[in-house]
């Protein structure tokens, strides 16, 4: 009989009351992004110019913005695959409003956000109180939202959108001191969300729910309202993000708006280090994940490579990020 | 059936001798001998932690003994894996049915050992064997095509037994089969067991319900502290004698302090019932008093605790907190009334393993910490965490350590600390020292004592005899969902165990 000694090198235990302000994975992401930018700067000298970086940041903004809400959701061990459909519905309603009634900026943004909030409320209520898994509910609502979006479109694109939303756009009017407004707003939202998650009871409760929903309920956490909040917050951000998408486009909005965006958003969140199993995650990571995803997209285009290579790279990043998370979790379980 | 009656004379079917098993320095089994004759029902009894399940795991190949020998039909054998055990015909039916709820009965029974013709499953042959198996376990033949998830727990257990018999079964281990069954269902189970032993199968029957052993067992082996104390024909013993042998000469330690000051009634239950779990429970707990609720697995004691905490709605009766009738819809409303619960299963219901000790301590009371400014006061949070680490003697270098890195006893103290951040009016503890080492157990008992002397009403739900005697001012024994008896702390372990295990009070003879 051979006694196999299960010896494990004793690793220093990370001391923390909460995850540290910036996690190891986030530092790795910063490094990867820096390396990519340097390489892209070498091979396509125009990459590091403002005229290339600014549109990149404009394209990052809605993904990271909606990613903040998605991070909340995934921290609670949920998911929302309906954001593509929700973006389409918010965008087409807002665009029609602008075309037909020429409403001012504030009204357009408010209407879009209120609509998004309602959509999020529908998702959250069904998930929290219906006790059906989030992927089922949001897969269903994704199709329903898409249906209504296409109904609002009618059979044609929305043409002649006025320039009301250009303040969030790619053009000169969308920037102050060279910084795109949409990106600046996104940074602000990320910082607020970062603070919220770490420092408020509500934020802590999201981690508790995703970490162990049963224990959270027994600790007196009101699980259902918190879950609804995560989806509502995402909905509101989808509303704002839809305005960013309109602004970043041309004066025509077509039926493809929002399509596949849920995957880009979820990719940003998981690459950013938020555990798909719930209980762990950070919005800073999500911002970095969004920058990485958009850098890959933009870089592949600028290098003149076939655009499907972007999918390949993003796919690899997702598998690395989720794979390391699952391996870490497995190691933790076997240790316990 | 392949199991024809074998006449092996006096050779035991299976014989374990001199078994020793140590888990990381803790002796689970010091010295165990077990000899099971063919065609008999051999009961194995002992308190929690006596070593019954470890012994069974060794026989089933799930664990390997450190020392000792094993004979099968007189031949020395070694069982090093569950495959070895199955090869010898040792089949185990665990307490909770281990079945695939989405598959049919037939599919469940033959899963992993499908009869084949070529590469196809031979449905006809399976169906034929299925009929005789279902007949043996007392199920209707028509049930073969039903989905297992649609069956009652009792039927699922019969399916589990059928599954065990589909392989070659010479020794059938039943681990607490009756804990989840009603009386009528137990009758069916016993009929099945008798039919099996008639064909020569040996049954090892583990149970906490001593009264039922007299109806089914031929022989009983009693374990205590990792040793097999004695093996006797069941007819030579009474419930009380078995209970005495289980607890041994250990005397109950009286509660350390003298008479706690009793205050007003904090919790009062009037005929509270929960369909399927307990019925017409009436009790009260006063401020400063520790009431012990003792019950064996399946007695309903745990459900009483979870109902008090608002995890389910009682189906009858009412509950009063400080004299006021309350209806609790969820745990958070119980907490608002000052009722806190230490849940039984620390990892599944108590801890947030990704998070730090501080997070785990304060998560239930963040509203207190964020009352002034609307966000959590980190300094106050840290102070609270450090204060409890000192008060409860949690062994950790820092409040920022993740809870997953801690031992059972320390993790339990952290989860207990969460209940104490805002001092509860009523603290309900379910198995507060399960899976906790002896030192930490003593400390947790001291903490509970201190809390009561500060005026908190305490209800401790436990299946640990020593514990209930050690800390309770009054002991209420729950059996089959009803209050069987109430004891003062000077009761003996034997009296309490006998009441919980089914001795009709006042009578020395089993019913």
From TrEMBL, chain A:
State a GO cellular component annotated for this protein: plasma membrane
**What residue intervals traverse the membrane?**
27-48, 55-75, 81-99, 106-129, 135-154, 175-197, 228-251, 263-293, 305-327
Recorded GO terms, molecular function?
Answer: transmembrane transporter activity
The answer to whether UniProt assigns keyword RNA-binding to this entry is: no
Quote the InterPro entries the UniProt record gives.
Answer: ABC_transp_permease
Q: What is its main location?
A: membrane
Q: How does it sit in the membrane?
A: Multi-pass membrane protein
**What does it do?**
Part of the ABC transporter complex LsrABCD involved in autoinducer 2 (AI-2) import. Probably responsible for the translocation of the substrate across the membrane.
Q: How does it assemble?
A: The complex is composed of two ATP-binding proteins (LsrA), two transmembrane proteins (LsrC and LsrD) and a solute-binding protein (LsrB).
Name of the protein:
Autoinducer 2 import system permease protein LsrC
TrEMBL record, chain B:
Q: Does the keyword Transcription apply?
A: no
Q: Tell me which GO cellular component terms the UniProt record holds.
A: plasma membrane
Extract the SMART domains matched here.
AAA (SM00382)
Question: Is this entry keyworded Ion transport?
Answer: no
- What is its subcellular localisation? Cell membrane
**One of the record's GO molecular function terms:** ATP binding
ABC transporter domain segment(s): 14-250, 261-505
InterPro entries membership: AAA+_ATPase (IPR003593), ABC_carbohydrate_import_ATPase (IPR050107), ABC_transporter-like_ATP-bd (IPR003439), ABC_transporter-like_CS (IPR017871), P-loop_NTPase (IPR027417)
Give the keywords, sorted: ATP-binding, Cell membrane, Membrane, Nucleotide-binding, Repeat, Sugar transport, Translocase, Transport
Q: Entry's Gene3D superfamilies?
A: P-loop containing nucleotide triphosphate hydrolases
One Pfam annotation reads: ABC_tran
Task: Write down what this protein is called.
Answer: Sugar ABC transporter ATP-binding protein
Q: How does it sit in the membrane?
A: Peripheral membrane protein
